[in-house]
Structure formats: C-alpha cells, structure tokens
C-alpha cells in the first residue's frame, strides 16, 4: 500500500516547495524509513539549483516502517541511520575497500553538479504522477524515505535522532578525513581551516586521534569559541582580506615551532582557499581538501616544496557498516560531541528559515525534525 509523504522538493531553479510525494510499497531490497530527523548542509542548498525536481536531503535517521521481501538485516521498528554512499560490495572499488566511491551505486561524479542522474533510483517515488529523484538516492527531508537496504545502518544506542541524523555526512566527512584518509598520527599537529559543521568534526577527529596541537582558523569569533569546545588547542581569527590565508599561515608556523603543521585540513568550501592548506604544512606534511571544491583553481607549485602531499578524499572514505557503529560508540563514551553541535532544530515547514540561518553562519548545524 502506497504512502503519502510530506516532502521538501527542489524545483530546480533555486527554489523549493513543500508537497506530497507518493511512495510505493517497497520491493526486493528496498526499505521505507519513517524519518525522525534530517541534517541540513550546504549541499542541500546547492541542490536547489540542479535543474530538476528532487526530494531534498541526504542526512537522516529514523525508524523502519516497511521492508521489501529480500531484506534480511532489518525489520519494522529498527532505528537506523541513513547513508548516502551505498556500496554494492561487488565492484572494483568496493572490493578495494573504497565503498564510498562504489562504481555501481555512488551518486557522486568527478565534476559537474556532484550528482549522477544515471545512478538515480527513480522507481517508487511519484510527484504529480511522475517519477521523482531522491537526493543522493535517499531524500531525507520528507516524512518517509524509500531507500535500498545498503543505505541503512542500525542504530543500537539511545542517541537522540537529531544527533544521529548528522552522522551520515558532516560528522563522517570530518572525522573520516582525519582517521581514515589522513591517518593522523598521535602527537602530530593539525590546522583546520574553517570551523563550521565539517571543520568541528575534523577537530574532533584530531582530538580523538591524539593530536598534540589542534589549530582552528576562521573569520567568525563564535565559531572559534565552538572550536575550543570541540577540542582546538589554539585559534587564529583571520579575515577575508588575508588573501590565501598567508598571514594565518605565518601564525601557524609560529605555533608549530617555525616548521608548519604536520596536517592541514581545508573545510571552508571557498575555491580561492583550495591551495591554502599547502602553505600551512611543513615539508613532507599532508594537506587535505575536505570540503569538496569542484572548480578549477590555480595553484602555485612552489607551495608543494618539498615532498608535501595533497589529497582530496570523499566522505572520509566511509565504510558505513564499520564507521557508523564506531562513531556511535565514541558518542556513547562521551568522546564525540554531537548534541552540542546542533544549534537549532526546525519543523519541515520552516525549512526556508533553516536555510537562511545556515547561509548566515548562525548554526554549527541545523536539523529538520519530524514529530509524527
């Protein structure tokens, strides 16, 4: 029996509407999840302008409502965290351990708008009697989400749903970029450019990994205060006038004994700062471009001298069935702060206010909540 799901729908021209989407009974390995909370990030805002109707949202948590006949690991009533990078476990990349860039299911491309229509799961969701895509194949800003079984990870914790919802992108991206991608060594120094939602989780990942110096750089004083709460040992307030963050880089070198940091993480999503982490690290240090800049930029190759490494990981090299339980365990132990990251929650009808607050930098993290 089909369900009517109140949903946020991008109209493709920079706007969205709240309307009903019809969701069919799940088939095969499909699951319908009753969404309890959906995290909000800049990618959701970007998706308003992808030129096509799409159910918004790619971070979420909820309760299993219905399961298809081939579902074996979940049953109605299970609490789940949704994961947008669903692995097939059979392709070359999955077999190589790169589940986040599955060749069969990943909705992420090497460029363009970050979404591959060819991998969209159109079946089962109708709007105005026509199939509609779900953002990153899940579409969490809705009362119900129709997803593949591989998009679900069981939540065996009393973690509040709003906190659980943000694990599946911003938290995983930040933490995983430190632990899985950079493999930060205990006792090292790290500088984080941008102390927004992702940057704060890079800070947490560095702290959990045992970094000795964690330096947060931002133009926003309130974000720098948050950075200290989440584990920063030093903060540097900069400004937009500091081109390429060259002045900030000199301050980083002073803090790190004149050498530069062992690791530098770019979390601003500002294309002009794409090369900035290279100026922050020592020779043979590692620069990590976390924020996913998909734009042509110019880099002074002198910044690579000498033996510096620059990596551009996706989603913190997420292995959902391995990494999500680790994050939940860290939260339950008190080592990973999530509740403190959520500045404000909103009902779906207040989504525009949530977008406005995010764009103005008011929130570390905003979350849409469903009380049904």
Summary?
The protein has 372 residues and is α/β, with parallel strands linked by helices.
List its traits:
372 residues; alpha/beta; Quinone Oxidoreductase, Chain A, domain 1; Rossmann fold; 2 domains; 6-stranded mixed β-sheet; 23% helix
Descriptive account of the structure:
The protein is an alpha/beta fold. The chain folds into two domains: 194 residues, Quinone Oxidoreductase, Chain A, domain 1; 140 residues, Rossmann fold, CATH 3.40.50. The protein is 23% helix and 26% strand. Strands 3, 5, 6, 10, 11, 18 and 19 form a seven-stranded mixed beta sheet that branches. Strands 8-7-2-1-4-9 form a six-stranded mixed beta sheet, with no helix packed on it. About 3% of the residues have low confidence.
- Give the averaged pLDDT, no decimals: 92
The N- and C-terminal alpha carbons lie at a distance of 19 Å
Structural class: alpha/beta
What is the helix tally? 10
Number of E-state strands: 19
Q: Give the H and E element order.
A: EEEHEEEHEEEEEHHEHEHEHEHEEHEHE
Outline the biggest β-sheet: 7 strands, mixed
Radius of gyration: 20 Å
Helix coverage percent of residues? 10-25%
Query: What is the domain total for the residues?
Result: 2
Considering the protein shown, what is the CATH homologous superfamily of the largest domain?
Medium-chain alcohol dehydrogenases, catalytic domain
CATH architecture of the largest domain: Alpha-Beta Complex
CATH topology of the largest domain: Quinone Oxidoreductase, Chain A, domain 1
Low-confidence runs (pLDDT<50, min 5 residues)?
Answer: 109-120
CATH class of the largest domain: Alpha Beta
Strand content: 25-35%
Shape: globular
